[in-house]
Predict the 3D structure of the following.
Amino acid sequence: MAVNINRVVMTGNLTADPELRALPSGMAVCNLRIACNSRRKGAGGEWEDKPNYFNVTVWGAQGENCSKFLSKGRPVAIDGRLEWRQWETPEGQKRQAVDIVADSVQFLGGRDDAAGGAPAPRGDVPIDDGDFSAPPAASGAGEEDIPF
C-alpha cells in the first residue's frame, strides 16, 4: 500500500498583517497571506519573478505569536500541509481553494526587516571581542609553561 505525503515547506513575505480570531471553544486561529516568488523567462527572454500568493492558517499559541510579532512585509518560513476546501457563495456558485495549514512558522529577519532588506546581525548575548583575540606569544621559557 502506498503512503501519502502532504508536506509544504516554503519561505515568503507577508502581504498583509496577520488576522487573529478565536473560535467559540477559545482556540486561537491566525490567518496569514504570504507571497513566494518563482522565476520564469519573460517574453523578452529575461528572467523575471512571478509572485505566488498563499493563504496560511496557524492554530493555537503559535497563531497568537504570529499575530503578536509579525506584520506586513515580514519574511517567514512555513512548514505545513495542504488542505482543500470548497463552499458555496450566497449566489449559489461553487468555490474551492487550497490553503496551507502551518505546523510551524519561523520568523525570519528581525522586527525591523519588514521592508525585505538584509537582516542586521543580532543576538541575545553581546559579543566579547576578547574571545577572538590572538593567543599571547610564547615566552620561550620551555615546557614548564604548558598549563596541562
In short: Residues 112 and 119 are 8 Å apart (CA to CA). The first strand starts at residue 8 and ends at 14. The mean pLDDT is 83.
